[in-house]
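User: I need a structural model of Putative 3-methyladenine DNA glycosylase from Streptomyces alanosinicus for a docking pre-check later this week. Nothing fancy, just the predicted structure tokens so I can convert them on my end. Input:
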Amino acid sequence: MIAPPDRTPLPRDFFDRPVLDVAPDLVGRILVRTTPDGPIALRLTEVEAYDGPNDPGSHAYRGRTARNAVMFGPPGHVYVYFTYGMWHCMNLVCGPEGRASAVLLRAGEVIEGVELARKRRLSARNDKELAKGPARLATALGIDRALDGTDACATGETPLRMLTGTPVPADQVRSGPRTGVSGEGGNGDIHPWRYWVANDPTVSPYRAHVPRRRSS
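Assistant: Understood. Predicted structure tokens for Putative 3-methyladenine DNA glycosylase:
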């Protein structure tokens, strides 16, 4: 008999560690999104680590801005950014306050609130695609910039909360280059900082960075 996932909230000290320790440890954990229409629970299957000043792929590589301020802590808070003029992506802040690092939530399996996720992701061909990719994940959960700075470790009523879930054994977690990251930050030999559950159908396909061309 398979034991149900642990619904204990993750404590703040889980996130108050180096991002390269937190990221692979997030695989298999559960994110709960509470909305007026009901809750959605997601089992994380793919994440990416971004290590601030040590990482040319990070939004915080060149320092603090109004956009990335949440990345500087405290840990356990949510960093949401808007990209390509149409998509939101969700991250969880890690490490000591004042030093920017975060884990991008790339993909997951919707385990509760599937009907609600389907309404938000009408283009999904099946339930495995509901949160297969960071923008799809954010759309399925109803994540936008209004949730930037939300404390995912808070007690009481909160729109986002991380639960212990069922951690994935280390021998079932794979690592490799981050998706769509350019330059040195996309070099998998230097930054193999994408982590995923081996052979899980909800994991997004790897895509190398392709420079955007300006129209003539």
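Before docking, keep this in mind: The mean pLDDT is 92.
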